[in-house]
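Workshop exercise sheet. Pairs work together: one partner reads the sequence aloud, the other fills in the structure field after running the prediction. Swap roles for the next sheet.
Pair: D.N. / O.F.
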Amino acid sequence: MTPRQRTVLSAAGLAGVAALFVSVFLRMPAVGSAVHVYRDLAVPAALRQVTPNVVSSVNFDLRALDTLGEETIVAAAVIGALSLLSTGNRPRPQRRRGYVLPPVKLGGYLMLPVALVLGMDIVLHGHLTPGGGFQGGVVLATGWHLLYIAGSPAALAKLRPIDWCEYAEAAGTGLYVVAGVLGLVAGGVFLRNFLPLGAFGSLLSSGLVPVLSILVGVEVAAGLVVLLARFLAQGLDE
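Structure field:
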């Protein structure tokens, strides 16, 4: 394809996207209007499914299939990044460790357990309060790497089971699909919320929503741990 042809094709695509945006903006409700169709559908559905956090109800119930696609994108992104950053059998040069200020080191050690507990809390209570598997998984993965900021990459390497994280990432995605198949068998719809809903505001409530949130949390946390490990190794090699 010549540069002129690429330019024409890109211009046609941009024109189509621009037309879609203009049509959407022209049909938007006026500022301050009480019309909100999605809200009027999502909030009652979340209440029926005993899920106080409407966002989690949308992610893991109303649009659970879309979330499966997003989870798969995360896994594919990790695999792609690892492939690009692979060093093969190239020997790693030995680098001198940089100096870390004592307050930074102390803060890293003190905040590590706090970050891990906070991440687990966000994942486990994602159906009740703001949060969920994606947010909690990121907190867990980044919190774990506070050891690196504290100047202890050796301790991080010992406490960071990369092999198990790779298995956990695959298991989180695979079990999400298994949960969808169970919903298909139990209720005739893939990813149907077939578990008992429980009492409103209870930890064991909302049916399948917290289960899917936990699976996503496992996949995101494990995937980001593996990804950050490769990024840090790449930085140490340079």
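Discussion prompt: The mean pLDDT is 87. What would you look at next?
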